[in-house]
Amino acid sequence: MVLLLYIKKYKLSITKHFLSLFYLSLLLWSCGGQSEQTNQTDTTQNIPKTEDTVTQAVSKTLTSDTMNTNEQPQNSSTTTQKTCENEGDTLTIKGVKTVCLDHLRGPIDKLLTALQKGDSLKVVCFGNSITNGYKVGSFGTVANPYPYVLERLLKKKYPNAGLKVVKEGHNGWRSDQGAKNLDQLVLVKKPDFVTLMFGINDAYAGWTTTFFQQQMERIITQLKAQNIEVIVLGFTPFTTPYNEKAITYLPVLKNLAQKHNCGFVNLHKTLLERIQKDKLDLDKVFPDEVHFGDEYYALIAEEIFGVMMAK
Questions:
Q1: In angstroms, rounded to a whole number, what is the distance separating the alpha carbons of residues 127 and 13?
Q2: How many helices (H) and strands (E) in the chain?
Q3: Range 93-309 classified under CATH 3.40.50.1110
């Protein structure tokens, strides 16, 4: 009798343990399923949206439409402009904004005609530290600033011409400083042609487009009054936030060139296209974000020469 009671008690104990294990397993499975669902939900929430908001931020020409606060977000494929569709369009190349502006030949063709004839010519390249060939990390200049390279390229193409290219670049100079010192630095040299490159330091100074236009026009009109042919260079690109201010000057330069029958080279855009085409590292091209690395100053001359040779 005692034995039977013991067996029954033992079976009951086993049954209770079995049921306990069963309910415990069921509970663990249920919690595990909920945990898995929660993890899946969190992961889904962390998946980035397909819209590229950085691409949408590519600059457009400021109009009342683009400033409309009710404007709905658009797909990046419709807002990213990869090519120039219209004169004055803004686009981004390698993360740097530029402006679509066609070149103006005018005096460029006059220069080439004179070189083909073998004439003796003097060209003065007037501008800022880029023209000077500022050497990053020092107070000196590079061995081959763009005016010297341009002279070599033109002499190689026209060996019979008596060409002299003079570098007149000054670190940190703005357009107003160029206008103030034009007489003693440029006119005194009696050049036949002058290239102008100002704008970067003007942007850092915060000059308005109106003030910049006034100073550049002072320079151009004084040169034209002396029968000097002028080629306006769209300043070189750079990678600091001031580039966005500077590019507002580019249409000003183009308009002045048209008004006064000057040449115009949109160097800002052509250099960015060259950098992209050659897959160059922006950090190496612009070690301090503004000036060129020693070996890259030649790119400026090569692009100017390329525009000159394109008919």
A1: 99
A2: 15, 7
A3: yes
Three-state SS letters, 83-110:
CCCCCCCEEEECCEEEECCCCECCHHHH
* Pair 211, 142: CB distance under 8 Å: no
The angle subtended at Cα 168 by Cα 166 and Cα 174, nearest 5°, is: 155
Contact 189, 119 (CB under 8 A): no
Stretch (H or E) spanning 118: none
Read off the pTM. Answer: 0.74
Closest CA to 239 of 205, 284, 197: 284
Inter-axis angle of helices 267-277 and 298-309, nearest 10: 110
What CA–CA distance (Å, rounded) separates 255 from 17? Answer: 93
Cβ–Cβ under 8 Å, residues 174 and 192: no
151 dihedral zone (left: phi>0; alpha: psi -120 to 50; beta): alpha
Q: Kindly report, residue by residue over 218-232, the tens digit of the pLDDT.
A: 999 999 999 999 999
Domains of the chain, residue spans:
93-309
pLDDT digits (tens, 9 = 90+) for 179-205: 999 999 999 999 999 999 999 999 999
Q: Are 227 and 187 in contact (CB under 8 A)?
A: no
Q: Long-range contact list for 26-29, CB < 8 A, 24+ apart? A: none
